[in-house]
Amino acid sequence: MKWVSSEPYHWPGTQSRVMFQSADKTEEPPHRKLGKLTVKYNRKDLQRRLDIEEWIDDQLHLLFDCEEEEMPELEIDIDELLELSDVEQRSRLQELLQECGKPKEDFINGLLYRIKGLRKMSGPLKK
């Protein structure tokens, strides 16, 4: 729509008339410029998190000594761990791994070492 005034500018308090006319249907809409995408986490943070998740997956396969299909339902939520104290993190991991018959301390120590300094993710980036 285009704005068209039939009278010159009037000071506030005086009466003026404003009319609108629709744009021609044949006109193409103006092209919009693409905005810049901003990311809350840089690639280094995201790559570090991905590396940790892959390490966890590999280690769980070794701990449970099984193939993907045979792996028990187990979810280690890095963000959940980051909200806990060191003692609570260790306790939570031991609770999650209680079904595993193999020694778990090396895995727990390795994971706690790897998540040190990691930032909690939020919003759409978290799955």
Characterization of this structure:
The longest helix has 22 residues, at 43-64. Mean pLDDT is 77; it is low at 1-6. This protein has a domain at 43-119. Strands 1-2 form a two-stranded antiparallel sheet. The two termini are 42 Å apart. Helix content is 39%, strand content 6%. The protein is elongated. It is built from four helices and two strands. The chain is mainly alpha-helical and 127 residues long. It comes from Oncorhynchus kisutch.
Write the layout of secondary structure elements.
Layout: E1 2-5, E2 18-21, H1 43-64, H2 78-82, H3 86-96, H4 105-115
Antiparallel strand pairs: 1-2
Protein name: Protein phosphatase 1 regulatory inhibitor subunit 14D
Organism: Oncorhynchus kisutch
GO molecular function, one term: protein serine/threonine phosphatase inhibitor activity
Summed up, the helix count is 4
Helix content: 25-40%
Unreliable segments of 5+ consecutive residues: 1-6
What's the count of strands?
2
Overall spatial form = elongated
Structural class: mainly alpha
Average residue pLDDT: 77
Q: What is the terminal separation in angstroms?
A: 42 Å
* SSE series: EEHHHH
Radius of gyration: 29 Å
Tell me about the largest β-sheet. Answer: 2 strands, antiparallel
* Strand numbers in spatial order across the main sheet: 1-2
Strand-residue proportion: 5-15%
